[in-house]
């Protein structure tokens, strides 16, 4: 069979994969905290018909003669650029400005419970007053030490749930992640400080669905702290309350990529068609 048939098939497969990624990006154009993905290709390998040789006395050098055998998937990369801010007016909706991820868990006080990461800050207080995600995972915070003289809040090191009692009169969340509430006696209390994790390679995180990521070895070192904590590399990271980060999908870019992908698919399909016609001519040599 002709090599072009197999090259054409590999081209169809890879363009189908790229189209799948583009379709997922477009489907999540309005998903809170979603990060778009991109696809790159690479050539597979080559059949060498003749190797290269160096020039000698009376003869010049020759270049190798090789025929490529198609294309395959090189990478699917997640692009972690900042999404647009959407004001919601809901005090428990939080947006991260800068790098980093919210940390959530089924049990923040148990170190053996897996920790997940998300950019989607659509949180709410449940019936117990705990700050949770839409799927019921607890937002992980640190305990806090309050200077009674200055009122300055210093994050502790113990991880905990962020709890605001149902009897409280009001609550507030500032840009440094400090959650305060006014108790039934009118005194201001600190419920905790929201934690943020930053990775050397956020594209190395594994997507789990439900706006969650899981840490992998390729994500690199995890630095966990609170917003604006310079010692953890979070000096330029802050929280915007009453806002959500929208998807970073650019529809103009996605539709352009869709057109390019469609034409690439058509061209590879045409390669298969023409190769089939050449084989048909070969078969028809003997009638």
Automatic annotation (TrEMBL):
Localization (cell): Bacterial flagellum basal body
Flagellar basal-body/hook protein C-terminal domain span: 242-285
Keywords on record: Bacterial flagellum, Cell projection, Cilium, Flagellum
PANTHER family, per the entry: FLAGELLAR HOOK PROTEIN FLGE, FLAGELLAR PROTEIN
Highest taxon of source: Bacteria
GO CC, alphabetical: bacterial-type flagellum basal body; bacterial-type flagellum hook; cytosol
InterPro entries: Flag_bb_rod_N (IPR001444), Flagellar_FlgE/F/G (IPR020013), Flg_bb/hook_C_dom (IPR010930), FlgE/F/G-like (IPR037925), LlgE_F_G-like_D1 (IPR053967)
Domain Flagellar hook protein FlgE/F/G-like D1: start-end pairs: 95-180
Lineage: Bacteria, Bacillati, Bacillota, Clostridia, Neomoorellales
Residue ranges constituting the Flagellar basal body rod protein N-terminal domain according to the UniProt record: 8-35
Protein role: A flexible structure which links the flagellar filament to the drive apparatus in the basal body.
Gene that encodes the chain: flgG_3
Protein name: Flagellar hook protein FlgE
Family statement: Belongs to the flagella basal body rod proteins family.
NCBIfam families with a match to the protein in the record: FlgEFG_subfam (TIGR03506)
UniProt record, GO biological process: bacterial-type flagellum-dependent swarming motility
């Amino acid at each position: 069979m002709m090599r072009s048939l197999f090259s054409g098939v590999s081209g169809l497969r890879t363009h189908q994969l790229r189209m799948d990624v583009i379709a997922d990006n477009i489907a999540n154009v309005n998903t809170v905290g979603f990060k778009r993905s991109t696809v790159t290709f690479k050539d597979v390998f080559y059949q060498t018909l003749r190797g290269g040789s160096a020039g000698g006395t009376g003869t010049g050098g020759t270049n190798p003669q090789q025929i490529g055998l198609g294309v395959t998937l090189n990478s699917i990369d997640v692009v972690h650029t900042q999404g647009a801010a959407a004001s919601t007016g809901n005090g428990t909706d939080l947006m991260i400005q800068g790098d980093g991820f919210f940390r959530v868990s089924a049990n923040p006080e148990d170190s053996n419970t897996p920790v997940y990461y998300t950019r989607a800050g659509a949180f709410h207080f449940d019936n117990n007053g705990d700050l949770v995600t839409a799927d019921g995972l607890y937002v992980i915070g640190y305990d806090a030490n309050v200077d009674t003289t200055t009122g300055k809040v210093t994050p502790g090191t113990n991880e905990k749930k962020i709890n605001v009692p149902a009897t409280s009169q009001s609550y507030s969340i500032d840009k440094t992640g400090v959650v305060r509430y006014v108790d039934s006696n009118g005194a201001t209390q600190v419920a905790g400080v929201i934690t943020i994790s930053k990775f050397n390679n956020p594209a190395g995180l594994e997507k789990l669905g439900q706006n969650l990521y899981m840490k992998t070895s390729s994500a690199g070192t995890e630095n966990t702290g609170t917003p604006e904590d310079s010692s953890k590399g979070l000096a330029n990271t802050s929280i915007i309350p009453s806002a959500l980060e929208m998807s970073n999908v650019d529809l103009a870019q996605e539709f352009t990529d869709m057109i390019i992908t469609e034409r690439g698919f058509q061209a590879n399909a045409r390669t298969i068609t023409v190769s089939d016609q050449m084989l048909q001519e070969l078969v028809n040599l003997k009638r």
